[in-house]
Amino acid sequence: MSSCRISLGASVLAIALAGMLGGAGLAGLASAQSKPESLLPPGFDDPAPAPSPRQAPGPAPRQTAVPGSAAPQPGAVPYPSDSGAPLDLPQLPAISREDFARLPSLEELENMSTEELDQLLGLKPKSDIPAGAQRSLTRIGVLALDEGGLPPAALANQSDKLVRAVLDGTNGPMVSRWGHILMRRALASRLAAPLGMDPIEFAALRVGVLNRMGEFAIARAVVQDIDTANWSPALTQEALTAYLASGDVTGACPAVRLQGSKREDGDWQMWQAICNAYAGESALAATQLDRALFRGVAPRVDVLLARRFAGAAGRGQRGVQIEWNGVDDLNPWRFGLATAVGEPLPEGLLDSALKARGGAYYARSGALLPMLPATERAPLAGRAAREGILSADAMVDLYSEVFADPAAKGDPQTHAATLREAYIAEEPAARVAAMQRLWSDGANLGGGDGYGARVLTAYAAARIPASEEQADAAGELIAAMLAAGLDRNAGRWANLVEEGSLGWALIALSAPRGGPVGQGAVESFIGDDSSEGSRKSAFLVAGLAGLERLDEGDASALAGDLDFDLARQTRWSRAIKRAADVGNPTLVVLLAGLGMQGTSWSQMTPLHLYHITSALTRVGLEAEARMIAAEAVARG
Fold it and tell me: Is the pLDDT of residue 88 over 80?
């Protein structure tokens, strides 16, 4: 068996030499043979001797035409005759040591996949997609203008340095759920690259922000809008992150196999082996993973998980026992592969990872992984909901699955039963009481400020009839409705809420056709505000001023009373104001996202909120500005 394998490798090596060195390589190999056999036509390399100088050459033999043969074409090399001199062959190029150093070793050739050999021999083009079918790079994204996307040419004439700085600087989640939703919409839009920026770099920057926001499914969709032959190393890395976090491990295989051995890190080698296995080369994949395990290119448990996943692609593969002994931490590869193959994580490993720095990744990824049961996704979904990744509809669907699962128990089952009561209880008071139990237990519905519970109950709150009997709960009900953008349903309570109350403030900010607000009403709200540092009051003043629903003089006076200055300018505020002045909604959204970074509304300043709502309103995004302002007061 070994001799056969060596023979095959030697044959492949000979072909590789021929493809890489051309005629020079073949000539060198031929000279090494003991008795080479010529492939040239007779007379080409063994001509007749020249006539003796003492004898006059005889007449040339008369050529007889062969029936069916064609006459020589102009410009063609004539066939040599017996009496002619041999033609001069061009001098063969010399072969240097560098030429041989570039050649792969026999071991490397044996480990190459079919596609890598094709690339080595020049048999595979950069892209196997016909030119007419290749995707255009003029506009990249998945959301067209008529589908809710932002104007495609909005950044085309903008400075590439500004756009690059904004996207590079957006490193984390948004404090605002509605700010997250708006940012996702901008990054997914079909956009042309800024002036002077490569479209692939622009796509990589956008996908990177989507990944950092936890929008892995959208990030995957954007990279899939680009032919894999055009992927850059940066875009490839962001694509691998998106594919792994969204549970689509083999989705990256076209790019992994096309790029071949361009990378040598451990993650890439494991991905190569998995992709080779699913391409039908299971023996090669097993060899690659065995070598990775032996050489320690990655931690042992990571390689074993890759082996288990690759083994599912072949027939008669050996079983793989995952060894978790000594594994004290979780990483994206372990979480993604273990989830994909149905391997249970050791008890407490995920809980520890969720509490550690960077643990939000597992909540954002796990909340959407379809291979996880609903009872395991529910505890992760609250965070995804409050951040804007999951919609209110998706949350209701998830807890409906939990309720229908007879094996469900613990908090997910309790929350599902309580949510059902919030929808079907006969009396409105009983439905409100069920929602209040969910709101008070918000810490177990995703932690944070419990806003995930508001998202979960948004549609149940909209079903409560506006009446004096439920007026005391109006503020909480309106906050829940606005978590899903139900501003018209919230507006039904306008005549029932008391001026200066939380419900009044939320309606004053969110009403689609809201009128001017008096200074006295705002002062009434400030007087009853018990939030830390009167943060809700400051956000109310900033939001009303940005939406132009508060007189400029009144806004300045109220802001002064709350210790902030609406006239203060920063480099960021000047940039977003200038973007609004020229009517560029896409740039305004990107700058707004940059200014809304954080994990808590305590990190948001009223000055930032003012500039964001003002700029969004001026570029035609007033609905989003209203929702952001109302959310700030509800969560402040």
Answer: no
C-alpha distance across the termini of the chain, in Å: 72
Checking if the pLDDT of 232 tops 60, the result is: yes
**pLDDT, tens digit (0-9, with 9 covering 90-100), for 284-303:** 999 999 999 999 999 999 99
Where do we find the tokens 């490193």? 171
CB-based contacts of 48-54 (< 8 A; 24+ apart in sequence): 48/82, 48/83, 50/85
Rounded to an integer, what distance in angstroms lies between the CA atom of residue 279 and that of residue 263?
Answer: 19
Contact 310, 277 (CB under 8 A): yes
How far from chain centre, in Å, is Cα 444? 28
How far is the C-alpha of 27 from the C-alpha of 257, rounded, in Å? 33
- Burial label for 623, CB within 10 Å (0-12, 13-18, 19+), is middle
| DSSP H/E element including 310 | helix 300-311
In which residue are the tokens 């505890």 written?
379
Angle made by CA atoms 81, 82, 85, in degrees to the nearest 5 = 80
pLDDT at 39: 44
> Taking a C-beta distance cutoff of 8 angstroms, is the pair 149, 189 a contact?
yes
Handedness of CA 561, 567, 568, 574 (dihedral sign): positive
Grouping H, G, I as helix, E, B as strand and the rest as coil, residue 196 is coil
Residue 45 C-alpha from the chain's centroid:
62
**pLDDT at residue 179 greater than cutoff 60:** yes
The b-or-e profile of 171-181 (16+ CB within 10 A means b, else e) is eebbbbbbbbb
Please state, in angstroms and rounded to a whole number, the distance separating the CA atoms of residues 68 and 622. 83
Task: Pull the structure tokens for residue 252.
Answer: 């990256």
DSSP assignments along 343-387, one per residue: PPPPTTHHHHHHHSTTTHHHHHHHTT-TTS-HHHHHHHHHHHHHH
pLDDT tens for residues 136-165? 899 999 999 999 999 999 999 998 999 999
For residue 72, name the pLDDT band (cuts at 50, 70, 90).
very low
Among the listed residues 188, 192, 180, 194, the one whose alpha carbon sits nearest the alpha carbon of residue 147: 188
Q: What tens digit of pLDDT does each residue of 472-499 get?
A: 999 999 999 999 999 999 999 999 999 9
| pLDDT of 27 strictly over 90 | no
Half-sphere exposure of 506 (CA within 13 A, CB side): 31
133 DSSP 8-state letter: G
